[in-house]
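If your schedule permits, I should be very grateful for your opinion on a structural question. Thank you for your consideration; the sequence and its tokens are set out here:

===
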Amino acid sequence: MEGYTPLVKAENLGNALKLRKLYLKDESRNPTGSFRDRAASLMVTWAYKTGFKTLIAASDGNMGVSLAAYAAKTRLNCKVIVPKNVDEGKILQLLIYGSELSEYGTYLDEAIDKVAKLAEEQNAYQATPELNPLSIEAQKTISYETWEQLGEVPDVIVAPVGSGSCLFSIWKGFTELKKLGFTSEIPKFLAVQSEGCAPIVEAFRRNSELVEPTSPETRASAILVRKPAYGVKVLKILREGGIAVSVRDDEIFKAEKMLARFEGLFVEPSSSSTVAALMKLSREGILSSDEKIVCILTGSGLKVPNIFESMSYRKRMFEMSFETSMKFRILTSLSKGEKHGYSIWKSLKGIISPQAVYQHLQDLEKRGYVESFNLNGRRVYRLTEEGKQLLRAFRIIGF
């Protein structure tokens, strides 16, 4: 079940940061490991009940994974468009749930622009959270749970910000609690972005209403968004009572280790950015030790297995994997059409023996990526749908 995730009293980390009332809302405990499961549950249910057969979304990882999992349960087709900068672990999750995966653009906002047109053209349910208000309605339940679990409204909510939907959702939830008379106040909000991608922080510092695109670069890919869909709304919230802070990637990774070693929680970089911000503000004396602070940990670190690797190191690892490289080349050759083994060997220009080609084909067929049939007395090979998905994944991760 999604939702009602733990609110953990971070005593060890709090002592280290001199913040006595520090809490962690651990959204990694959701079924697929992120807060996006809340939105996926509601949107997929609605798509199913209203008769859609296919849903489509642009995602930088977590939302797509959640949608793919819930769509698999309801037997809906799930199409996910991802930008170039997506963690490999999330790509693999998308594939294992059986989603139809394609790549468009370098950044999430470019993929969103693309999917806005595709949903209508393909008569598919629009499940992109930035384009579907149900995502906000689902995610605001984080506020209700935090208030119920804590027994009161926290003084500060610390949230990572990419598109801004998480922070906006939580603000909306607390605002509704106040309107309904359950509380008399709402928290202050601390929005956190990476220095390499901080359009909201820069706009806040400049006192500008416009969130201008930047040329972003950060390893915290879940908050790698050039043009935040909820940027203007988030800025308004912050100016009514809050602050925006940017942190360096190395500070994020330091916070990652602290969370793991002090509290036993392994979260993705976007989540640990909240702790990095607290470390920074604590040193500057901006936060009071008596304030009740809740950090929103949006997703699990298990989704980002390459977290401490550099991109160049990861590519060298792939280059060293000769066997994987050969299978990739064979799949690429078959992507151009059905072929018999000898034709595949010729397309590889003799870099391995014909016998080795047939061994790779046998292995690929056993794994379900290739299928064969007899044509005029010769065995012919072609890609299966799973093989096409695998080849697409190889290309997306830069193989």
About this structure: The mean pLDDT is 89. The CA atoms of residues 197 and 216 lie 4 Å apart. The chain has three domains: 7-31+135-303, 36-132, 311-396. The longest strand covers residues 188-194.
